[in-house]
Amino acid sequence: MVYRPDDRPPWSVTLVLAVQHLFLFVISLQVIAALAGAAGIGDDDLLVLIGGIAIASGAATVVNAVGYRGFGVQYLAPYTLSAAYLGPMVLAVKTGGLSLLLGMTTVTGLAQAGFSRYISRLRKYFPVEIAGMILLMLGIMLISHIMPAFMGKYGSGPGTDIASAVTSILLLGFLVVVYVYGRGAVRTAGIMLGICAGWLIAVATGAFGPAEIAGIAAAPLFALPDPLKIGWSFDAALLVPFLVAGFCTVFNDLGTFTLCQVSTNQAWQRPDFGNIEKGVLVTGLATAFSGLIGGAGVGASPAAVGVSIANGAFSRIIGIAAGILLILAGCSPLLIRALTSVPASVLAAVSLFAVSFIIVSGLAIISSRMLDSRRSLVIGVPLAIGVGIDLVSEKIAGMSDLFSPAFGTSLTVAALLAILLNALYQVGVKDTVEFFHDPAAGSPADVNAAMMGPARAWGARKEVFSRAVKAVQACIRDIEAQGVTEAPVRVIMRFDEFNLEVFVSYLTRRSGEGGRLTTGAGGMADASDLSCRCTLHLHFDH
């Protein structure tokens, strides 16, 4: 890491990196463009909607970066519009206009905030490998949205913009070169350099010209969103699709905040659900606030965290600066128009570059755990179904408006199915395992097999159990070398997600002098016949 969460970068570096995250926010505005086209929203209402989203996202970014009394994860986790709300947003605008969208968004945010208090109870059903699967699925889902723009495919027409596709490919190659061979400030500001380079390519190809400049100049410099002109309304019939979208956003946040924890802590072992609770609470309150000031549902941006991984800058000061810039952008239609003038091909290349780090992080988390056939299915089946949903997303979009949000979001389907399968496969899996080993007849490989089998069923960390196996093998060798027992050695393992307890016990004959002892039943016994069980207790942090 170049800048750790508590570091204070120079203000010049902070500003450049904050502007990078501001440009990443623009990517979500493509969803707003799709909404405007599908629901027929006018330019004035569209500016109110974008302004509300930007202000709420900025406020949530600042709160998460600062953290205060149970609020915020204290990470650089910029916010943006959650794409999960697109379907319900279109449905709400078509049914009751923007007022219904604002009212339903407010209610959904309050429901999210209430649900956040129960996030920690998911720990039992949410092992580390499922967190990795969610990150992997999150990256795959983002790719399905990015690739059309990356390949120059816009709208529903059959044509492809070759110039846009070439721009995306060249820019992606530029970013790879910068982050592989670049050093210092060049590598840190690589995304910003890439956006500037993409803008120059767009000017050269005619994608950005005088008409776009005139549109930017015509927008007012300062104008607060005025939701009072729109109002708020509620329709119980739309509650299900909006709550489903909110639930999708919770899983998005869970993956994003886990990515923050993994990226900033080299000793990371498992998700900190208490910390994630605080972040989901901020998301819920920010979504409710967004609905009140004229915006839509927001969520943490995994692409922004991917960019932080790329440039190694995780300072919370950058998050505060990015949040302030987002709030200022929400109050300036001119700045919003300038940001949205960035060609989609440029944003697609930057997004694809950032998503690659999310996918690698997910794979690394999954591979850190040992998986038996059950746990492999817990990861493989939901992942396959999630990818399949992305492949047939257009057909799913034709389903009933009440059900398409649930089945059309691959991340939610995959996460819920993984949790369900994990709970199902927990049946019959014991947290305590016992086996016997005869040092005279067995071998160290038998100990390894007896301990690693349950470890795979538990989804344990391989390095912890490797140390435990070596320790148990050493104990058994010492017992055999000292010749203190002729009976098999008994090994008991007790496991939870945080601890591994191993008990190695053996029965040893007590040396006696042939004397007679009185037993509790009044009988007599030879002292040389007495034996005792010795137990070695080994503890391993997991």
Description:
By secondary structure, the chain is an alpha+beta fold. The chain has helices at 11-39, 43-66, 86-115, 128-150, 162-181, 185-188, 190-205, 210-218, 239-264, 273-292, 302-311, 316-330, 333-340, 344-367, 373-391, 393-396, 404-407, 410-425, 444-458, 462-482, and strands at 79-81, 298-300, 432-437, 489-495, 499-509, 516-518, 524-526, 531-541. A four-stranded antiparallel beta sheet has the order 3-4-5-8, with helices on one face. A two-stranded antiparallel sheet has the order 1-2. α3 packs across α10. The chain starts with 10 loop residues before the first helix and ends with a strand.
Throw out a few tags for this protein.
four-stranded antiparallel sheet, two-stranded antiparallel ribbon, 62% helix
Draw up the topology in text.
Blueprint: H1 11-39, H2 43-66, E1 79-81, H3 86-115, H4 128-150, H5 162-181, H6 185-188, H7 190-205, H8 210-218, H9 239-264, H10 273-292, E2 298-300, H11 302-311, H12 316-330, H13 333-340, H14 344-367, H15 373-391, H16 393-396, H17 404-407, H18 410-425, E3 432-437, H19 444-458, H20 462-482, E4 489-495, E5 499-509, E6 516-518, E7 524-526, E8 531-541
Antiparallel strand pairs: 1-2, 3-4, 4-5, 5-8, 6-7
Mean pLDDT: 83
Structural shape: elongated
Please give the radius of gyration in angstroms.
29 Å
Structural class: alpha+beta
Count all strands and give the number.
8
Helical content class = 55-70%
Within the largest sheet, what's the order of strands?
A: 3-4-5-8
Main beta sheet, described?
4 strands, antiparallel
Beginning-to-end CA distance, first to last residue? 25 Å
| Total count of helical runs of at least 4 residues | 20
Helices and strands, in order, run as HHEHHHHHHHHEHHHHHHHHEHHEEEEE
Low-confidence stretches: 513-521
Q: What amount of the residues lies in strands?
A: 5-15%
